[in-house]
Amino acid sequence: MLARVVAAAALMAALGGCATTANNPSDPLEPLNRTVFRFNDAVDEAVLKPVARGYRAAVPQMARTGVTNFFANLEDLWISANNLMQGKVESALGDFLRFTFNSSFGLLGVIDIASEMGLEKHNEDFGQTLGRWGVGSGPYLVLPFLGPSTVRDGSALVVDYKAGLLSYAVDDVAVRNSLYALKYVDTRANLFDATGLVEEAALDKYTFVRDSWLQRRRSLVYDGNPPREPADSDEPK
Amino acid sequence: MKRIFCTVALLAFASLAAAQDVTPDVLVKGITQDVLGVLKQKDGVDPKAIATIIETKVLPHFELTRMTQLAMGRNWRSASPEQQKLLTAEFMTLLVRTYSTALSTYRDQVIDVKPLRAAPNAIDVTVKSDVKRPGSQPIAIDYDLGKTPAGWKVYDVKVGGVSLVTTYRETFANEIRENGIDGLIKSLATKNRQSDARFGASKT
To answer: How far is B11 from chain A (nearest CA, A)?
Structure first.
């Protein structure tokens, strides 16, 4: 499902590439991206936001934290693998220990005991690993239903998806899809603060989301210490 | 001994001396605590009071003109002094909102300002702070500060690696390309008035 979405996006991107009028070098597909962005926004307003709001109203905070923790725990194994691929052995070990402790003592990850033990959670994915290996991000890409990405990170999502525990540890298709749906809703419910901030801050929502997303990803690739860009200086270009 | 003397001197002299001697990390810690202190009682406090406290406690530590200049890039020099003044005022209102909204997201969390490691004669430093959130990666809030005759001043704030200042560069450039500098001033003002309505606060 996800792979198909990404493939479709890549195809659309390739087609859209013919008609570029954009002026941002990192966003040559701007006209197409804006269309997908509007589409995502419409889906969000019509379906996702109401569902996430209902979820927040119906499920108590503690249970929601449990759900978030459960999915976060499943990801720690792949995060560990990514840290290892980036040569960060100590972090990889920490992630692995997190997964071990939380899966057992933390009741399948519902309780994040590892954080309380001082094992900090990390944010890694295959896109960041590729970035660390020197693969450039490629053009900015807004994926249908999934939102901001780049050609590199969007392609890496396929790997993340295949490597995700849910995709090979849960055999029953119905159960697996239900879990994906819950994860999606839970993720959206956790984004209310961020979307509120965008509403507060953005003059043009599309540009603001794009430019903060690209900065965020760059910062993540360098684990919070990106080298200064020429754009950081007072005189660009 | 020298430190005691410094402390005494600091107490003795007025705010100007204090501003010059406060180290960047102490300054950032103060700002963070001031803002969080206000936001924590947000439900009980008049929104106007929040805006006032941020304007009196936080803004004096921000180098407003430089921030606006950074967001404007090359277009800064083509703005008249009058336009520059208007731009700075409107952009600051927007930034204060964004910054306090960002911090209010984390108002129940612990914010840990890390001690600064910089050469004693440094004139440009980054103070890092971490928002600890149980169950997810800490969010980094980094403050870029420059040394000015009036002490250390913040000229950029990055939340999770995203600059609250340079993120606007592209938006501003687009707006200026389409509607000129006055167009940008106008759309900033419109935006701020919309937020005024939402915040329930107005500058009086």
So the answer is: 36
Half-sphere exposure of A173 (CA within 13 A, CB side): 1
Name the residue among B94, B101, B167 with its Cβ closest to that of A211: B167
C-beta atoms of B134 and A115 within 8 A: yes
Given a cut of 90, is residue B199 above it in pLDDT?
no
A231/B169 touch (CB, cutoff 8 Å), yes or no: yes
Q: pLDDT (tens digit, 9 = 90+) per residue, A9-59? A: 555 544 444 444 457 888 999 999 999 999 999 999 999 999 999 999 999
Instruction: Give how far the C-alpha of residue A87 lies from the chain's centroid of Cα atoms, to the nearest Å.
Output: 22
Short-list B38, B64, B100, CA closest to A193: B100
pLDDT reported for residue A21: 47
HSE on the CB side for A168, CA within 13 Å?
9
Interval B75-99 mean pLDDT: 91
DSSP conformation letters of A79-140 = HHHHHHHTT-HHHHHHHHHHHHHHHHTTTTTTS-HHHHTT-------HHHHHHHTT----SE
Entry pTM: 0.81
Using the Cβ of B110 and the Cβ atoms of chain A, whether some distance falls under 8 Å is answered with no
Contact B175 A120 (CB under 8 A): no
Q: With H, G, I as helix, E, B as strand and everything else as coil, classify residue B22.
A: coil
Instruction: Give the residue from chain A lying closest to B72, CA to CA.
Output: A234
pLDDT tens track for A200-215: 888 889 999 999 999 9
Nearest to B97 among A120, A200, A219 (CB): A200
Cβ distance B94 to A201 less than 8 Å, yes or no, reads yes
Tell whether B195 is within 8 A of chain A (Cβ): yes
Q: Residue B131 forms beta bridges with which residues?
A: B111, B139
Answer whether A104 touches B (CB < 8 Å): no
Instruction: Write out pLDDT tens, residues B134-156.
Output: 667 888 889 999 998 888 999 99
Check whether B46 has a pLDDT greater than 70: no
The per-residue pLDDT for range B159-179, each reduced to its tens digit, is 889 998 989 998 999 999 999
Question: Nearest CA to A86 among A191, A221, A196?
Answer: A221
B159 min Cα distance to partner chain A (Å): 9
Cβ within 8 Å, pair A219-B158: yes
Q: Do B97 and A204 touch (CB under 8 A)?
A: no
Cβ-Cβ contacts under 8 Å, B192 against chain A: none
- How confident is the model at residue A95, as a pLDDT? 94
What is the CB neighbour count within 10 angstroms for residue A135?
16
